[in-house]
């Protein structure tokens, strides 16, 4: 078979293990799923009711233009309908942007570490890229500007950033956007934007009127609790929207996803309630960890980046040790963020389990090395026969 040679540079996205497999392997009754930045709550009750009434119509193709949802989002954001594009999650829109603006002889500027898809879309199109390192886990915007070349056609910012939670305030971000050359498309990925509680927050959708090269991406997978339905949208100049529409597949957003997204937006009070719940738990976990002598990077997202270099076991073993205690997190060593783990904000009870486990691992340092290996790693890591 004559495979596309760029595939040699790519690896498939590996989703986390299934909860049933984890419970069986480690003999756990419950696992706190704090690894994928999902919210612990499902769709709003009104969304569930709306979905039930739509089940009989699934023999028909969905509205390919997301017309009703498009009209509501446009009015909600104060933008024209021709500035909106919808996708099978914001990930599909990232892939479409890669197909539209990247290719051999094109260049991208990406933050690092950040969402793994950014690198993948450049590699998939055979484009070169500069992965600009963060500075103290924060964006180095000056270095990103310096990385822009004559052939740079795409620059991506994730705000708040995944996996650090770092947030670029408008007073910093807007001058940066203005400084990027007009022929370089800036993708502002706001997958976690609804969790921001900073008083400096602004509605960035309106910035696209001043910057035709700005594309803003958002998703319903996070605060709306619709990760299982896969729907997101972009706000961009009509020329960009038209280009993306040319290459997206027909009917790329299913009917139930459109109904769920539309009904979700009709309940801003529920969105605000979730934002405040996440913010309160984020602050509580940060304070409790600090009291233990464990640092967290400041976050405006629904996750925390937690320092694991001062525990009683080596940093690379922490995610596994937490898993054996029924807490699934994301190891920073797998995200080019060594010395840290990423922990999703869940229910208060899940946070308490995580805090107790971290306190346990902090106290393990007094245990003899032989006890640590035999009692924690060797026995617990052996596969179930």
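-> sequence recovered:
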């Amino acid at each position: 078979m004559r495979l596309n040679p760029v595939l040699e540079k790519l690896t498939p996205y590996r989703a986390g293990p299934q909860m049933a497999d984890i419970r069986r392997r480690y003999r756990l009754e419950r696992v706190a799923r704090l690894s994928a930045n999902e919210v612990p709550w499902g769709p709003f009750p009104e969304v569930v009711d709306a979905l039930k009434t739509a089940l009989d119509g699934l023999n028909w193709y969905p509205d390919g233009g997301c017309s009703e949802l498009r009209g509501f989002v446009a009015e909600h954001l104060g933008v024209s309908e021709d500035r909106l594009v919808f996708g099978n999650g914001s990930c599909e829109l990232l892939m479409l942007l890669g197909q539209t603006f990247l290719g051999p002889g094109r260049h991208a500027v990406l933050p690092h570490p950040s969402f793994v898809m950014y690198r993948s879309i450049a590699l998939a199109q055979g484009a070169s890229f500069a992965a600009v390192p963060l500075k103290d886990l924060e964006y180095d915007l000056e270095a990103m500007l310096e990385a822009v070349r004559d052939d740079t056609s795409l620059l991506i910012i994730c705000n708040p950033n995944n996996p650090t939670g770092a947030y670029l305030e408008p007073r910093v971000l807007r001058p940066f956007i203005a400084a990027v050359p007009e022929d370089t498309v800036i993708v502002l990925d706001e997958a976690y934007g609804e969790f921001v509680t900073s008083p400096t927050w602004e509605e960035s959708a309106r910035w696209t009127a001043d910057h035709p090269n700005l594309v803003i991406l958002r998703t319903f997978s996070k605060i709306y609790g619709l990760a299982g339905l896969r729907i997101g949208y972009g706000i961009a100049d009509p020329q960009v929207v038209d280009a993306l529409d040319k290459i997206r597949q027909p009917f790329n957003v299913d009917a139930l996803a459109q109904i769920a997204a539309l009904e979700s937006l009709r309940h801003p009070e529920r969105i605000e309630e979730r934002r405040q719940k996440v913010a309160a738990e984020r602050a509580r976990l940060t304070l409790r960890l600090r009291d233990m002598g464990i640092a967290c990077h400041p976050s405006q997202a629904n996750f925390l980046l937690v320092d694991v270099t001062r525990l009683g076991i080596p940093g690379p073993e922490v995610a596994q040790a937490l898993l054996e205690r029924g807490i699934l997190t994301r190891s920073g060593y797998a995200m080019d963020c060594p010395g840290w783990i990423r922990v999703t904000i869940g229910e208060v009870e899940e946070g308490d389990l995580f805090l107790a486990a971290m306190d346990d691992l902090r106290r393990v340092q007094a245990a003899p090395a032989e006890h640590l290996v035999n009692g924690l790693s060797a026995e617990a890591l052996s596969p179930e026969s």
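The chain has 13 helices and 13 strands.
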